[in-house]
Design brief:
- By secondary structure, the protein is α/β, with parallel strands linked by helices.
- Helix 3 packs parallel to helix 5.
Length: 208
């Protein structure tokens, strides 16, 4: 899934790319890789990849646009009501990191952005309540994210369904977040008979 580094030309004061460029924004990703959101079913689980990076003016922020939300509703309507759903995307749906880091308005990535007259957090999905409202049509059991450079495990019970929100740490080295240091690495998930197992990556994933 695309992250903020795959949105071509943004931060225009540095990129010097005009918004009229034919590959500006999400278009470069779509040109070279194809759709920037999609779904598939495997092992009795429905997986949904969302593009959670949107652009306002020269800057990115976490957001799922209305076209994706409409597509998501149609997509979930096609699967059985009891089928578990896993979402995966770059900017996470929810995260604790802004609370640990504290507010900053310093570059290169300040905490908030004002879009259409409303100030929202940039580094989580700003319209997460809308996204979760659509996802509640099915048992949304796991939401995978990244972006914040820290490993997180958060769980909420929403409408009787326990949803785990998990972020992978960065692979560029340990990240200092507030008073904590998060080790480098990522998580590999395997699906066994409709059960999703997660564990810290220590080598090559084997088995079913």
């Amino acid at each position: 899934m695309p992250g903020n580094h795959e949105i071509f030309g943004i931060e225009q004061d540095k990129s010097h790319v005009e918004a009229t460029h034919p590959l500006f924004g999400r278009k470069m990703y779509q040109h070279y890789f194809g759709p920037d959101y999609y779904s598939f079913t495997y092992g009795g689980v429905h997986f949904v990849g969302l593009n959670t990076v949107d652009v306002d003016g020269p800057s990115y922020y976490g957001h799922v646009d209305s076209l994706q939300l409409a597509w998501l509703a149609r997509d979930l309507a096609r699967i059985p009501a009891t089928m578990p759903v896993v979402t995966f995307n770059h900017i996470p749906l929810v995260s604790t990191i802004e609370g640990l880091n504290g507010y900053t308005d310093a570059p290169p990535a300040p905490s908030v952005i004002t879009v259409g007259g409303t100030t929202v957090f940039r580094h989580v999905v700003s319209n997460v309540t809308e996204v979760l409202a659509v996802l509640r049509a099915r048992p949304h059991v796991l939401a995978l994210g990244a972006h914040v450079h820290a490993g997180e495990k958060i769980a909420y019970e929403i409408g009787g369904v326990r949803t785990r929100f998990e972020q992978s740490a960065a692979v560029v080295g340990p990240s200092e977040i507030g008073p904590l240091t998060f080790p480098s690495g990522f998580t590999v998930y395997t699906v066994r008979g409709g059960v999703i197992d997660g564990g810290r990556f220590v080598g090559i994933a084997t088995g079913p």
